[in-house]
Recover the amino acids of this structure.
């Protein structure tokens, strides 16, 4: 479960601390440029590290410093709860005079307050079981240690943290591109959710029980007049989603492409929320909305919303 993120000296964020704690949701409101989208960019950066990107210049450049102020470090911190334990990861980057790219100033991972590894400049210290037992090794100061450290077992805290963060899904839906049509199956959503139809087909084919869960969730907890989603063949191998609404004796069926932008986002993201860790950002009709949600198959839902809504946004969520 996502618990906290801290970002300092990165783009438009300075000393930004967002503690979620045990809350199921939080709402961020602000004008354009206030930093709502930058929060998702920071999380994307951390996810790229967990997925294996270790070279600093592939993640940030000197232009990413807040107002160009490179005289102080750029900092990222994230706290998550996994298996009842608090994992805390921090990364500090600096840009010394005369350098062409940023380098690592410090890096650390702890579990419930106990250090797993720490790093200062080019020196990494690994703790094995107690603060007194540690191994040390050198590393290029332009490389981040987390992707490089080799896990010792399936229960290694480095592996558990990286796997959780790497498997989260970050999406930025573009409603006009979500038509619901597909000619193949997938279990991985595109960032713009353009392959929603393929994801739905893959879900039904590989996990029918998961679809039943989504169907029940949408009917009973989200949209009372929602009745069904079907994915019939419309020609060759092409399928197209259709949505049926029902209220008392009245029913109405629409192709997914005919839904409003708000309905497309609402239905697709609510479905994702029920299945996978999710981080999402929307832009439609003057709305800028960031959603970060962690959900394991058996876990608790935690959602972060960051939104800028203009009056008259109409059919947006």
């Amino acid at each position: 479960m996502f618990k906290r993120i801290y970002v300092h000296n990165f783009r438009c964020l300075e000393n930004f601390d967002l503690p979620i704690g045990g809350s199921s949701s939080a709402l961020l409101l602000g004008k354009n440029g206030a930093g709502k989208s930058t929060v998702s960019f920071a999380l994307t950066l951390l996810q790229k590290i967990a997925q294996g990107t270790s070279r600093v210049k592939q993640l940030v450049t000197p232009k990413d410093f807040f107002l160009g102020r490179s005289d102080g470090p750029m900092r990222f911190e994230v706290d998550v709860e996994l298996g009842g334990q608090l994992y805390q990861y921090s990364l500090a980057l600096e840009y010394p005079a005369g350098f062409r790219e940023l380098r690592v100033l410090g890096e650390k991972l702890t579990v419930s307050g106990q250090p797993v590894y720490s790093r200062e400049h080019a020196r990494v210290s690994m703790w094995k079981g107690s603060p007194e037992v540690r191994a040390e090794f050198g590393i290029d100061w332009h490389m981040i240690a987390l992707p490089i450290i080799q896990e010792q077992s399936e229960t290694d805290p480095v592996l558990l943290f990286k796997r959780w963060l790497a498997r989260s899904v970050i999406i930025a839906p573009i409603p006009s591109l979500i038509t619901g049509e597909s000619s193949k199956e997938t279990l991985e959503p595109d960032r713009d959710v353009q392959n929603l139809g393929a994801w739905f087909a893959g879900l039904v084919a590989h996990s029918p029980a998961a679809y039943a869960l989504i169907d029940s969730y949408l009917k009973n907890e989200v949209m009372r007049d929602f009745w069904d989603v079907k994915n019939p063949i419309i020609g060759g191998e092409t399928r197209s989603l259709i949505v049926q609404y029902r209220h008392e004796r009245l029913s109405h069926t629409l192709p997914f492409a005919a839904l409003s932008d708000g309905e497309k986002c609402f239905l697709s993201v609510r479905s994702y929320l029920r299945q996978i860790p999710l981080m999402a950002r929307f832009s439609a009709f003057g709305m800028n909305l960031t959603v970060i949600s962690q959900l394991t198959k058996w876990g608790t839902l935690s959602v972060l919303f960051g939104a800028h809504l203009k009056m008259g946004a109409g059919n947006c969520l």
Notes: Confidence is low (pLDDT under 50) at residues 277-317. The radius of gyration is 22 Å. The longest helix spans residues 36-50.
